[in-house]
């Protein structure tokens, strides 16, 4: 009888990671082997199957169409293996690992995560704060919070919020911005990391979307935000991210003219991955907390943990 599994599991895992990530190095890191060993895994697998799985190009290694067609099944299979083992052992059920960008973490989540912890005192939240788009199928990551259009390969998403945006500034310069036309005469802070659309907002305000805007330039979103608070100029920002600063008077919305953008914040998980109840608790909490936060409610009462049962698997 022919062997139904002609490729070793480690080699199959190497194929899946390289195809999904588009490089040998991530597979080498995850498998704990050298890049040369990963390359050998791929070559031997191709020899055993009698077909090429990857194209070797000057730009790097690229999966061929036949492999891309079955990649969702390979990725889903390994995800289910990881989840099955976690269910069997109960590993990590008391920890929720969330990867998140610095702005969402520092301007929103860090001020509220204590309320989630108070609701579920037996569930520890661990944040991995990074600008990189980490692989959500990793066993040490349960979910991510991402900003964008919600379309990422191999990912299931649910919208959190953050679509509305508008200019904000410090009360220190309020007298300089009586109308949107004043943007041509006051500093406008440029956040080079932002995906918000100034032309769309200018059009909404009845101005030329190509109107030149000048001011300080920052390559870090947190610095741009702090620059606005310090009075350095006008910043285009999501209402969700500025609600607390507006509520406590550090920022104002001089024109009160929001635009609904095409992008927002999404709760993201690896496609096909088991959805543990801890993730459901986090999703439900976000669904309730985000609308409240847009209204500036950051210091809501935290439940009395003495009346709550601790989180259990």
Structure description:
The protein is an alpha/beta fold and 313 residues long. The protein has three domains: 9-89, Winged helix-like DNA-binding domain superfamily/Winged helix DNA-binding domain (Arc Repressor Mutant, subunit A), CATH 1.10.10; 95-162 and 263-299, Periplasmic binding protein-like II (D-Maltodextrin-Binding Protein, domain 2, 3-Layer(aba) Sandwich); 164-260, D-Maltodextrin-Binding Protein, domain 2. The chain has ten helices and twelve strands. The protein has helices at 9-21, 24-31, 35-49, 65-89, 102-107, 113-119, 198-204, 221-229, 239-247, 277-294; strands at residues 54-57, 60-63, 95-100, 124-129, 143-148, 155-161, 164-168, 190-191, 217-218, 235-238, 259-260, 264-270. The strands form four sheets. It has a five-stranded mixed sheet with strand order 4-3-5-12-6. A three-stranded antiparallel sheet has the order 10-7-11. Strand 8, helix 7 and strand 9 (217-218) form a beta-alpha-beta unit. Helix 1 packs across helix 3 (35-49) and helix 2 (24-31) crosses helix 3 (35-49). Mean pLDDT is 86; it is low at 299-313. Pfam families: HTH_1, LysR_substrate. It comes from Devosia subaequoris. One of its GO terms (biological process) is DNA-templated transcription.
């Amino acid at each position: 009888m022919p062997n139904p599994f002609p490729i070793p599991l480690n080699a199959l895992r190497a194929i899946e990671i390289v195809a999904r990530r588009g490089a040998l190095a991530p597979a080498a890191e995850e498998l704990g082997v050298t890049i040369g060993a990963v390359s050998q895994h791929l070559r031997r697998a191709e020899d055993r199957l009698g077909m090429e799985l990857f194209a070797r190009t000057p730009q790097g290694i690229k999966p061929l169409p036949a492999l891309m067609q079955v990649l969702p099944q390979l990725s889903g299979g390994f995800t289910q293996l990881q989840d099955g083992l976690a269910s069997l052992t109960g590993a990590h059920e008391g920890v929720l690992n969330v990867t998140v960008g610095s702005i969402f973490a520092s301007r929103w989540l860090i001020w509220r995560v204590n309320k989630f912890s108070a609701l579920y005192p037996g569930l520890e939240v661990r944040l991995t704060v990074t600008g990189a788009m980490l692989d959500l199928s990793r066993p040490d990551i349960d979910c991510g919070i991402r900003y964008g259009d919600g379309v990422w390969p191999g990912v299931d998403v649910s919208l959190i919020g953050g679509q509305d945006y508008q200019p904000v500034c410090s009360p220190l310069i309020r007298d300089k911005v009586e109308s949107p036309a004043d943007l041509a005469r006051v500093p406008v802070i440029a956040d080079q990391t932002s995906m918000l659309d100034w032309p769309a907002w200018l059009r909404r305000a009845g101005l030329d979307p190509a109107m030149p805007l000048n001011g300080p330039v920052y390559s870090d979103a947190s610095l741009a935000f702090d620059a606005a608070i310090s009075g350095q100029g006008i910043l285009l920002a999501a209402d969700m991210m500025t609600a607390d600063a507006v509520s406590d008077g550090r920022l104002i919305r001089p024109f009160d003219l929001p635009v609904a953008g095409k992008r927002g914040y999404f709760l993201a998980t690896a496609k096909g991955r088991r959805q543990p109840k801890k993730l459901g608790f986090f999703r439900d909490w976000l669904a309730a907390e985000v609308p409240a936060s847009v209204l500036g409610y950051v210091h809501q009462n935290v439940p009395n943990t003495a009346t709550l049962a601790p989180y259990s698997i």
